[in-house]
TrEMBL record:
Residues 1-24 form the signal peptide. It comes from Xanthobacter aminoxidans. InterPro entries: BatD (IPR025738), DUF7939 (IPR057699). Keywords: Membrane, Signal, Transmembrane, Transmembrane helix. This is BatD family protein. Residues 399-428, 458-488, 579-598 are annotated as: Disordered. Residues 413-424 have a biased composition (Low complexity). PANTHER family: PROTEIN BATD, PROTEIN BATD-RELATED. Residues 464-484 have a biased composition (Pro residues). Pfam families: BatD, DUF7939. Residues 498-577 form the DUF7939 domain. The chain crosses the membrane at residues 430-451.
Amino acid sequence: MIRAALRTGLISLALALGATAALAASFKATVEKPPADQGDTFELVLSVIGRDSLEPPNISPLNKDFEILDRGKRSRMESLNGRMVEVNEWVLTLAPKRAGHLVIPALTLGSETSAPIEMNVAPGSTAEPPDDGPIALSVDVLGTPPFYLQSEIPVVVRMYDRVGALEASADQPAADGATFTPDGTLKRFSRIYGRQRYRVVELRYIMRPQRTGTIQISSVALRASIPTSPPGAQEQARALGRPAMPWLGGGFDSGRKVTVFANPVEVTILPRPAGVTGWFLPARAVRLKETWSSPPAKAKVGVALTRTLRLEVQGASPAQLPPLKPAETDGVRQYADEEHPEAAQVGGAPGAVAEVHITVVPTRAGSITLPAVTVPWWNIATNRAETAQLPPVTLQVAGSADPAGLAPPPAPAAKSAPKPQATPGDDAPLPWRDIAAIALVVVIIASFLLFSGRRAGRRASAIPQPPERPVAAPPARPGRPTPTRPAVRRPMVMAPDERAAAGAVEAACEAGHATAAYRAYLDWNRASGPGHSGTASARTPAMAAALHEVSRHLYAGEGDTWDGRGFRSAFTAERKAALKPTKARTARGLAPLYPKAR
C-alpha cells in the first residue's frame, strides 16, 4: 500500500511540475539598445520561458518598417520563483527603413503573442558604404545634437566588405579633448546596397568630451588582406552580387594587403548653460514616479515600508542620471539600496531609466512629512531649465506596543554569516501550483521515511542481539579509589576578558566592521557579569537602538553603510552603566557557608 502511495505521489509530482513549467512559459519581445537614428541598427530579442520551440516565431510582420539583417538563437538558464528555468531566445538584428514613429508589431509563436513595441526613430544619415571600393570604412556619430559637456555620445565604426576579406583590423577612434570606451561586442551581418551584397562589421564606442568647442575625431585606419583573383573573376562576382572567391587564382594565398581610411568627423560640444548649478541633466523629457508597498496613512512605529522611486529620462544615457537619495527626515530612518541605471525606450525614443528601493522605518508616532523629491534637468528641445518633482508624502504613524518604539533585534546564530539581501518579490505569496508541489514533496518524503523506518525495525527485530559483556574496569592501585571514566568529556570554555572585548568593540567601530563589532559586543556582554551570557541585551536605550540598527544592517540587508561612531558612543554609555554597583540580594534562612569562629 505504501509503494502504491509512493508511486501515486511521484506521478502527481511530475504532473504538477509539468503544469508549473507550462504555466510559467511565456513569449515576449524586448529591444536591446534602441536605435539612436535611422542609420543605427539594433537587436530585437524574442524569448520563450520554461520551454523550447522547434518552430521559430513568425517574424514576417517586421518587413513592413524594418530590414532584417541577421538572426540567431541562444539559450540560457534563469531563476524564476526560486527555480531554475530554461530561457530560449531568438535574436534579430534590425535596421529601420524610415524615420518617424515606428511600431514593432505583435509577433506570434504558436498560440502565444508578444506585445507590440513603439519607438520614435530620428532622421539621420543612412548607413551606406562611403565609396565603391572592395572594402570601405566609416565613422558615424549617433544621436541628435546638441551635445553638452559631460555627456555620452555614441559613435559607431563600420567596415563594409564585398570581396570577402581574409583578415581586417581597425584602429580605435581618437580625438584631442575626448575619450573613447568600447560599448559592447562587435556585430556582423550582411546587407545589400544597390545590387551588391556587403558584409558589415560594427564596433560601438562611447565618446566622452572633456572640453567645449569643436572636437575632431581623427581619421581611423583599417588594415585588411583581400583575396587575389584572375582578371575578370572579380567583375563577374560583382555582376552576380557575390564576393570574389580566393581559390579562383589557383590556390589559397595570404591575399593583397590594403589600408583604407575613414573621413574625420567633427562634433560640436556646448558648455553648461549659464546659471545651471548642481547635477546637469540634458534631456528631452523626464518623468518621476513612486510606489509604496503599503499605504503611508497606515504606517506603524518600527514597521518598515518600501518606497520605490523610478526616474525615466528621454534622450540621455545611464551615466547621466542623477542619484535618487532620500532626504534625512526627523522621525524616520531611511535605507536606500544601490541604483542600477540602464538604457531603455522612454516614450518611444532612446533613453535611460533608474530605479531605487527605499526602506522607510518610522521611529515615533504622529504625523511625519517626507519632503518633496525633485530632479532638475535641462530641456534641450526648448533650451530652458525644468524640474521633475514628486509632492511631499505625509505618514500617519500609529503607536507601537513596544515601549522603546522599536522591535528588539533578532538574536544571531553563533558565527553565522549575514543573510543575503532579499530581492523584490521574495515576500510575495507563493502561487497555488508551487504550494501544491511543495506539499507533494513533503508527503512523498514522509511516506518514504515511514516505510524505511518500518523495514529497518523489522530487520532489527529479526536479528538476535548478542548478550552484553561486562566491561572490565582497570585495576585499582592500593590505597587509591577505583578510577571512573566520565560519560561525556566537555571542553573547557575560557571566559573572555572584559577589557580585551571592549577594546575589540572600539577597534571594530573605528574600522567600520559591523560584524566584528557585533561579535565583540557579545563577548564583552558575556564577560561583563551574570545575566548577560553573550546575548544581545542592553542596559541603556542608546545601546538597544544601536543593536537594533546593526541587526538591520547585518541580517535584514537594509542600509548601505553602518554608523560605527554611533555604535561606539552607545557602547561607552553601556560600559558606564555596567560599572554601577548593584545591591546584592541574600537568601533568607540560609546559614553562611563559612561561619566565623566566635
